[in-house]
Amino acid sequence: MKNRIQEMRKSRKVTQQELADALSVTRQTIISLENGRYNASLTLAHKTAQYFGTTIEELFIFEGDENLIGG
Amino acid sequence: MKEFKKQIEKKLKFWTLICCLYPSVLIASKAIFKNANDFGQGVVFGACSGAMFVAIYFLLRNYYALHDEEKLKKLYVELTDERNKAIAGETMKTASVINVVIAGIACIVAGFINVTVSITLCADIILNVLITLAVQLYYKKKM
């Protein structure tokens, strides 16, 4: 799942460490999120969206049927 | 964070208790295994000492976290970070599969050398699988 965390973080001139501290996660988690190597949980997605004053849909780009089982 | 601090306090008490119990466990094990061979006694002493070092590590970590807000926050992030938790879960899953496969191969190879070792390894695999199934059943009911 792609996201706009890096874009939003840079536009607000926030460092990865500052964002990590605000979300109570490690800086490595922020790096992995920005690189798309790790998908945030619903809680973290919500907290991140809240931090940037946006919605989860705006922040995370859901591309079709990723990892969908069945259906 | 207050809730987390309480948890750390509880953990500190637990590890302190373990450290205090160490001498009595060591004396008791000496008394229980006094007729065992040197190797057996050494294994018991080694296991107790290993547990003691682990207890000291966790005791110090929790103690310093309780007396320093910065360290407490760092510990909180370290323990609650969801990526760390996901990595730990995936690591355990992969490691346990590799473990069973290696034990299976060792069981087959040992069958040609020593039957007792082969049966022990086989029992270990069966126990491993049973524990996995039991834990899976627990989480299926819990979640």
> Roughly how many Å apart are the termini of chain A?
19 Å
Name of the CATH architecture of chain A: Orthogonal Bundle
Structural class of chain A: mainly alpha
Helix and strand succession of chain B?
HHHHH
- Overall mean pLDDT of chain B: 92
Alpha-carbon Rg of chain B, integer: 20 Å
How many structural domains can be distinguished in the coordinates of chain A? 1
- Total of helices of chain B: 5
Number of strands of chain A: 2
| Share in helix of chain A | 40-55%
Q: Please identify the oligomeric state.
A: heterodimer
Instruction: Please give the order of strands in the largest beta sheet of chain A.
Output: 1-2
Tell me about the largest β-sheet of chain A: 2 strands, antiparallel
Largest binding interface between chains: A-B, 12 and 9 residues
CATH topology of chain A: 434 Repressor (Amino-terminal Domain)
Number of helices of chain A: 5
What's the SSE blueprint?
The complex is a heterodimer of chains A (71) and B (143).
Chain A: E1 2-3, H1 5-11, H2 16-23, H3 27-35, H4 42-52, H5 56-59, E2 60-61
Antiparallel strand pairs in A: 1-2
Helix pairs in contact in A: 2-3
Chain B: H1 2-32, H2 38-66, H3 69-80, H4 82-111, H5 115-142
Please tell me about this protein's structure.
The complex is a heterodimer of chains A (71) and B (143). The mean pLDDT of chain A is 89. Chain A is globular. Chain A has one domain: lambda repressor-like DNA-binding domains (434 Repressor (Amino-terminal Domain), Orthogonal Bundle), CATH 1.10.260.40. With 71 residues, chain A is mainly alpha-helical. Chain A has five helices and two strands, in the order E-H-H-H-H-H-E. Chain B has two domains: 1-80; 82-143. Helix content of chain B is 91%, strand content 0%. Chain B has five helices and no strands. Chain B is flat, with a radius of gyration of 20 Å. Chain B starts with a helix and ends with a helix. The chains are: A mainly alpha (71), B mainly alpha (143). At the A-B interface, helix 3 of A face helix 3 and helix 4 of B.
